[in-house]
Every structure is written in structure tokens, then in C-alpha cells.
Amino acid sequence: MPAFMGSLDLSQARLVAQGGVRFVYEHDDFPGMLIKVYKPDAIDDEGHFVGKKRKRMKFRRRLGAFVQVNREIAEFLAFQARRSNRGEQWPIAKMFGFVETEIGLGVLTQKLTAPDGGLAPTLVALVRGRQFSPRHRAALQRFLQDLEERHICMCDPHPSNIVFAGDIENGGRFVAIDGLGAKTLLPVRDWFKFFNARRTRRNAQRIWKFVDGLGKASTEPAPAVGLAGVQA
Q: Pfam families given for it (predicted)?
């Protein structure tokens, strides 16, 4: 039975990143995929984040920690549903489904890489490593315009959730790998492009403030990052 048809053993898989609540592994059988899975000690027996107050809404109680995954998938599907997006380079990482593992349900996502084959560096890594060039600036401007024009919602537009994939000399681009979707109870940003565009422009101001401050003017501390600077 192919690995993707059964439960996947992560004990021998390569851990490439980890954050506060998730591990990120390489997929042994599919080099272009990553597996994001919640850390066992981050989730309680009822499926909620440890230490988090439970939501009162029934649907949130049922989803538990997977409300975060649900937002990401919903945003991915909303983007995929628009025919105008087909055949274009995506400003968000692709999602391929789920896989059972010995530590919980994993989400299969696109592995975005640098020219050397390693994981694509985050915007945080580029800026703080003094590698952010004028070409990166132009690419970041295109990315932020894409978010607004294509009606993509991000609930957490932190620079660690944005990576630069490919070669800056040959069509490289910024891509959102995390923080997708809207958190509000009434998803007005989903319903109305105007409201999302307004929020996206405010988020863009924060991102430019971070970039122009050489990584020191971020409005909040960067979350835990993995071995290659990828947020989990």
C-alpha cells in the first residue's frame, strides 16, 4: 500500500521546522510536499490548544485546534474556486490534503524552495540577514498587490509567514505559507473585497515598516521558527 494510503510514520522523517504548536516534516515519498502536524503536547484530550480558553460557539468547540487549519483550507479553496487564478503563479502555498500519522492528522502543503534546494527563506530571514535587495522590494510590492487584487485574506500577515521562493534573478516570488483566512465571527472580509483590501493595505504598512526598519521595527516579536526560518 502506498504510504499516502495508510498511516505515515514520522519517526524517521526529517524535521525541517517547528513552531509553538506544530512540527513540519519533509514527505519521504513526495519531495515537493511538507507535512504540518500539531505537537502532541500542544493539544489536550478534547482537541483544543493547551492553555487556551475554549470558544463558546459550538462549531468552534467541535473543531478545536483545527479551526486554524479550517481557515487555511477555506482560503485556499476560495482562491482555487476563482477561474481567473488558474494558470498563474500562486501567492499562497498550495495544499494537497491530509495524512494520518502516529502523532495526529497532518496537513500536506507545498514545499517552497530556494535555488540551492533548501527551504525558501522567510521575509524575516532576508531582512535580518541583510539580503533584502531592490529586486526583493519589487517582488514584495507585487505580492502585496496580489493579496489585495485577488481578494486573499490573511489573519496573521507576520513577515515570518511569507517566504521568497525561487531565484531572485529568474522569476522568484514571495508566497504566503501560513496565517491565511479571516478570524472574525462575521467574515466580512470574505464577503466584501473592499473590507479585505482596506485591511490588506494596513497589513502592508506594517510589513513595510518591518522591512524599512531592517527587521527591528516589527510590531510584534517573531514567532518560533524552524531550522530554515520557516514558521510552523
A: YrbL-PhoP_reg (PF10707)
Collapse the DSSP code of 231 into the 3-class scheme (helix H, G, I; strand E, B; otherwise coil) and give the result.
strand
Instruction: Tell me the pTM.
Output: 0.83
9 contacts 102 by C-beta, under 8 angstroms: yes
- Residue carrying C-alpha cell 501560513: 178
Q: Would you state the cell numbers that stand for residue 64, as one nine-digit string? A: 478545536
| pLDDT tens column, 178-194 | 999 988 778 888 888 89
The fold for domain 3-212 equals Transferase(Phosphotransferase); domain 1 (1.10.510)
Band (19; pLDDT cuts 50, 70, 90): confident
For residue 127, give Cα distances in angstroms to 37, 67, 162, 213. Answer: 28, 31, 12, 9
Centre a 10 Å sphere on the Cβ of residue 22 and count the other Cβ atoms it contains. 24
Question: For the sheet containing 15-18, what is the strand order?
Answer: 15-18, 22-26, 33-38, 104-110, 95-101
pLDDT bracket for residue 223 (50, 70, 90): very low
The domain spans of the chain are 3-212
Do the beta carbons of residue 15 and residue 225 sit within 8 Å? no
CA-based angle 212:218:221, to the nearest 5? 150
